[in-house]
Amino acid sequence: MHILVAGFQHETNTFAPSKADWAAFQSGAGYPASTHGAAMLARMGPTSLPMGGFIRDAQERGWQLVPSIWAAATPSAHVTQDAFERITSVLLNDAARGGFDGVYLDLHGAAVAEHVDDAEGELLARLRQVVGPAMPIVASLDLHANVTERMLRHASAMTAFRTYPHVDMAETGARAAGLLSLLLSGETFATHHERLPFLLPLNAQCTLMEPAEGLFHDLTMLELQSGVHLSFAMGFPAADFDECGPVVFGHGRDADTVAANVQALAANAVAQRADWALALLSPATAVSKALALAVTAKKPIVIADTQDNPGAGGDANTTGMLHALLNAGAGRRFPGGVALGLLHDPAAAAAAHAAGVGATVELQLGRSVRSFDGTPTDAPVAGRFTVTALSDGVVPLHGPMTAGNTATLGPSACLQIDGVRVLVTTGKTQMLDLDLYRFLGVDPVAMKLLVNKSSVHFRAAFAPIAAQILVAQAPGPMAADPADLPWRKLPAHIARRP
Q1: Using one digit for the tens of pLDDT, what is the confidence trace for 204-256?
Q2: 287 in the same domain as 270
Q3: 431: CB partners within 8 A, 6+ apart
């Protein structure tokens, strides 16, 4: 069998300040840079991403892979029209050449372009027009996918991650290969889906906690009992379009069995509506509580700076948590034992590199940006910073989510002020790997207090080393509570919170 393979990954926060242009896909930052043709197979094969899992499984099956484009950019506001059309045109041109028996797409499922709200639905519709109605098209999706009617109509089958933090990305790619194998053998699928009547806050979607943990256990049990291929895409609750939100969907031989199992899982999720709530702390309260816990804790206390998460559309440059640390004298209480990362500030990183390790630089660190509600975030932190470490920002990763991947963050520096160490980068990625502290001389295991610009992904690497994890609601572009967002296109019957 010859299989056309391609990938398009973007999680779009339509309320965020920065868009994803073609340069963002070329650089990749926390993702591999965009690639095309045979080089894509070499680059993606060893990774823990869905494409890596699919490639390895397909090779074991003896399939010949026909590589097209793989392109990903750090979550942000809309994908520009230019970037979307460039990526799509490469895929469609390769598809038009033919010579393959099926298609695998490594998609996110929550992309919104400047000119198309349902970006993946549009891509699938255009591809279906090129390859025809009989060609099997299978896609893997992120757990945060906003699954749409067009996606379900034009894909032959789809399967979504089942963990958040996403430690099953490669496994999902392999599962997509299994679905494609069934279709290539002549099997046909009935499909059914159910949309939940409310949005799920991002932090509450963590599958290490209830109710999500229990629901995915139920999903597995239902699959084993019924033979239906089930997915629960919990949605990315910051994409302002009419199909944003959680969807349960499934594929199988018998339409009635598929519908019954999809409906059962969706009903279970709705029945636990009250359990999706999450405690959020103000920056000052989070730091105060963390400092009190750190006195006796034998492991670090970790605070999630969730509303500036660059994995959800933030730019990782707000300073609310840094101000809170300095106001509380955190670095004086635990000198050298408090760190914040990663803060995106190319100018500060450049200044640090120009000055050198050991130098002191006068900086305005961070930025005041537009929050999701239109108000400005905290002012930059002005002061004298000591440069304690420098790096080119090329960071091989080894964590549960990231093993085999490399972050390319550009010139980076560790800057210390009043005993607090701030890890500053030129590129953007969320703090989801212990190596993203270590590359600038910070041993996260030995710290008393860590502030991570992330929502949930950091838990895969940090939960094992943390005494306790707190979630702070410092001003930023990504609303921890989707009800706080100024929605315009979301239908009135979809509740903004559970």
Answers
A1: 999 999 999 999 999 999 999 999 999 999 999 999 999 999 999 999 999 99
A2: no
A3: 341, 342, 437, 452, 453, 454, 458
Q: According to the model, what pLDDT value does residue 357 have? A: 98
| Same domain membership, residue 473 and residue 447 | yes
Please list the ranges in the chain whose pLDDT falls under 50: none
Are residue 65 and residue 197 in the same domain, yes or no? yes
Q: Which DSSP letter does residue 372 get?
A: T
Rounded to the nearest 10 degrees, how much is the dihedral formed by the CA atoms of 484, 486, 489, 492?
A: 50
Q: Helix (H, G, I), strand (E, B), or coil: what is residue 217?
A: helix
Ranges assigned E (strand) in 55-101: 64-72
pLDDT at 38: 94
* Omega before residue 211 within 30° of 0, cis: yes
User: Looking at the domain assignment, is residue 494 inside a domain?
Assistant: no
How much is the pLDDT for 31? 83
Domains: count for the chain: 2
Amino acid 28: pLDDT: 76
User: In Å, how far from its chain's centre is CA 40?
Assistant: 21
Where a domain ends, among 276, 293, 328? 276
Last residue of a domain, one of 276, 302, 327: 276
